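Narrative of accomplishments. A recurring question from our advisory board has been how the design workflow behaves on a single, concrete structure rather than in aggregate. To address it, we present the structure tokens for one chain from the evaluation set, followed by the sequence designed for it. No filtering or post-editing was applied between the two.
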């Protein structure tokens, strides 16, 4: 477990050496690369795709062949080598521990290679629990293995290198080139899960942080995006030196027509909390039925009887115009998590229940504390 403020006192070396306009030295540039497996670290053999240790390091060689004139040194480490669908919260702590061990004065930035399936969740976890690191952390992935000509692993790696060398922005970002050849830059707490048919990612409100074009970063000045200046001046909020940990006892449910809540029996084992996803309009079924129990209102009452708190997301504004079913949800005691993606809401709940004991602390953390722009606010 890593104390929240562990990174707050990290400083660059005090040795005086020539620097560029970002305050970086003119010595040979170095980037730390953390391999974790995933498709970008896999090989395709016949019809099978699986992780391969050598494939991860092949990425560096392929990048060197792709941009032979770029004078950059890469230090590599591989704390994990798994397909990302097999990832569990403890793996996030392994990555965070690896970040903790880095001497940031030696590097311009960090690149984390990752699988596509759980990329948004890891991006959120690193964004929330790795505050105060003074250099950019770039997460990249690939839709196909490196030995498949359709794969974009090398391109995404190249875009990440360009971002690091061109920007001085601390924080966690995801770069993934879409089918139009646009290298989209997402904030780590804003990424939605990839579309299963197109392999495309999106940010909440379809407003990514920016795009890489001709090796340069172009900021997207959307109303919900922080400005570059605001991101540069951000400081980690105080949360009383919390030793961060993630709970794997948060139950996540998605609504669908006919969801029967009677299948969830807490008499033998119960979660510490439930995150109930909502339809796009901030709703879930409140209909009573004699045939089966399809009402979330009954489920809420059941959870309350077992002292299990139910959170709902995504929801834009609980004080705005809501559907009748949404009002019933709130009146029944569901706790709304406003203006946050459901992927990040889930990771943040895992972090809250793994790190705090008091319900009041958890509630304040979830609803009032924003660690890395996960709670959307208009400029």
């Amino acid at each position: 477990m890593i104390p929240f403020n562990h990174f707050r006192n990290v400083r660059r070396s005090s040795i005086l050496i020539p620097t560029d306009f970002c305050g970086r030295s003119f010595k040979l540039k170095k980037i730390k690369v953390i391999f974790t497996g995933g498709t970008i670290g896999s090989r395709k053999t016949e019809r099978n795709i699986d992780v391969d240790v050598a494939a991860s390091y092949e990425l560096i060689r392929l990048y060197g062949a792709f941009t032979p004139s770029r004078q950059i040194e890469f230090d590599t480490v591989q704390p994990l080598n798994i397909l990302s669908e097999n990832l569990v919260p403890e793996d996030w702590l392994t990555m965070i521990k690896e970040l903790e061990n880095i001497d940031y004065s030696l590097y311009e930035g960090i690149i984390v290679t990752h699988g596509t399936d759980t990329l948004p969740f890891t991006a959120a976890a690193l964004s929330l629990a790795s505050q105060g690191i003074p250099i950019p952390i770039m997460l990249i992935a690939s839709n196909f293995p490196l030995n498949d000509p359709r794969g974009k692993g090398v391109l995404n790696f190249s875009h990440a290198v360009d971002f690091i060398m061109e920007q001085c922005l601390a924080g966690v970002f995801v770069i993934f080139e879409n089918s139009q050849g646009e290298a989209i830059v997402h904030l780590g707490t804003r990424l939605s899960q990839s579309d299963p048919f197109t392999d495309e990612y999106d940010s909440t409100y379809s407003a990514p942080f920016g795009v890489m074009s001709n090796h340069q970063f172009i900021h997207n000045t959307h109303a919900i995006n922080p400005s570059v200046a605001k991101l540069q001046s951000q400081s980690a909020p105080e949360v009383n030196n919390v030793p961060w940990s993630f709970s794997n006892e948060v139950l996540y449910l998605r609504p669908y027509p006919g969801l029967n809540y009677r299948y969830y029996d807490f008499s033998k084992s119960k979660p510490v909390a439930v995150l109930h996803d909502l339809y796009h309009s901030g709703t879930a079924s409140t209909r009573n039925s004699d045939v089966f129990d399809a009402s979330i209102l009954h489920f809420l009452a059941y959870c309350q009887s077992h002292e299990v708190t139910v959170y709902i997301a995504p929801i834009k504004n609980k004080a705005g115009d809501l559907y009748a079913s949404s009002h019933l949800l709130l009146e029944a005691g569901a706790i709304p998590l406003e203006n946050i993606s459901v992927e990040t809401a889930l990771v943040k709940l895992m972090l809250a229940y793994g790190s705090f004991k008091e319900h009041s602390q958890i509630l304040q953390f979830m609803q009032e504390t924003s660690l890395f722009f996960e709670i959307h606010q208009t400029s």
